[in-house]
Amino acid sequence: MGVEVVVEGLTKSFGKQTIWGDVTLTLPPGEISVMLGPSGTGKSVFLKTLVGLLKPDAGSIFIKDVNLAKCSEHQLYETRKLFGVLFQDGALFGSMNLFDNIAFPLREHTRKGESEIKQIVSEKLEMVGLTGTEKKLPGEISGGMRKRAGLARALVLNPEIILFDEPDSGLDPVRVAYLNQLIVDLNAQTDSTFLIVTHDIGTARTVPDNLGLLFRRELVMFGPREVLLTSEEAVVKQFLNGRREGPIGMSEEKDAAQVAAELAAMTDDEPPAPGTGPKGASGTGVPPQLLPSPGLPERKAAGRRQERVMQMLHTLPEKAQVAVRAALDEEHAQYESAHPQASVS
Q1: 287 or 305, which is more confident?
Q2: Confidence band of 216 (pLDDT split at 50, 70, 90)
Q3: Is the predicted pLDDT of residue 202 greater than 70, yes or no?
Q4: Which string of DSSP letters, residue by residue, matches 172-194?
Q5: At what angle do helices 98-109 and 114-127 cross, to 10 degrees?
Q6: Cα–Cα dist 175/188, whole Å
Q7: I need a labelling partner for 333 at 20 to 30 A (CA). Which of 62, 200, 258, 326 fits?
């Protein structure tokens, strides 16, 4: 299973500009988490800080009792082996074919023989649906295929933590849907800890176990998907429903008076903007989470999250409790329909 990542009081600045401050959250082991936020809120900076590519100004990042913010270069090097990273463009070497691109970490960081490397590369290519493309160059394949090849390379060292930096950027909605299903399928197979940085609301509403939102140089909220999808926090509600009304403006933050006037004019039953993803069949606004593809194992992380949500349910507003219960019931029904043998046994 993936490892827990504990972030405490993390702060990052460039010169006099604070990117975000006092960020505190825990990425539960083996679960899929998504970090959202308007453009320019430092989501990718957070990802790079998490993996040790950037040093924070303050705070801690604990992974297996190692504080990446203050550890030695040797400890950082060893801890980085726990990570796999999918960068926005796949970050493939243009002069290498896909086989050599994916084999690169194995040749660089292990002493495995070429026959074993070939077996591992073939396995990872199959996992991302790219069998038979080994000899192609990155420039000869589509953007979606490059993303999947980058993901295969991120998987070759069997990482316990996988970071995705805007994996959906540059992809059309159909390819995003395929990629989202691939992410869920991979989590079911690896049980690794996933963190995805994205702008895509559909991804945020259907893929993760946990959601976080960066805004105004701080982490507004982080927690189980059901909690954020039923939240009345103005900026969370605005972002996850794709509405104009709320604290987020087109090019800058709105003033308090404008936000208050917009929110007062809104009705609770106003539908989300087009393209923000379907509501659940129960009408709760919490769509069911994506299930792994048929034939794959049950995703253990989903069960762990559901148990955690039930334990904290009493702390939520009554309206949210009703919506969350309906959403969880719908998820259970969906799972039993897809896995009838599980409900019989």
Answers
A1: 305
A2: confident
A3: yes
A4: -HHHHHHHHHHHHHHHHHH--EE
A5: 130
A6: 20
A7: 200
Phi and psi (nearest 5°) for 90?
Answer: 90, -25
Domain ranges of the chain: 5-220
Q: What is the dihedral of CA 185, 188, 189, 192, to 10 degrees?
A: 110
* Amino acid of residue 36: L
What tokens appear for 245 in the block? 């009304």
Q: Which CATH architecture has domain 5-220?
A: 3-Layer(aba) Sandwich (3.40)
50: closest CA among 63, 41, 39?
Answer: 63
Q: pTM for the full model? A: 0.86
pLDDT in tens, 7-64: 999 999 999 999 999 999 999 999 999 999 887 888 999 999 999 999 999 999 999 9
| Residue that has been written with the tokens 């000869």 in this structure | 140
Q: 177: Cβ–Cβ under 8 A, 6 or more apart, which residues?
A: 202
Q: What is the DSSP letter of 74?
A: H
Backbone angles phi, psi at 194, to 5 degrees: -110, 140
- Identity of the highest mean pLDDT range in 100-104, 325-329, 341-345: 100-104
DSSP letters for 258-273: HHHHHHHH--TTPPPP
Instruction: Quote the CA–CA distance of 34 and 62 in Å, as a whole number.
Output: 19
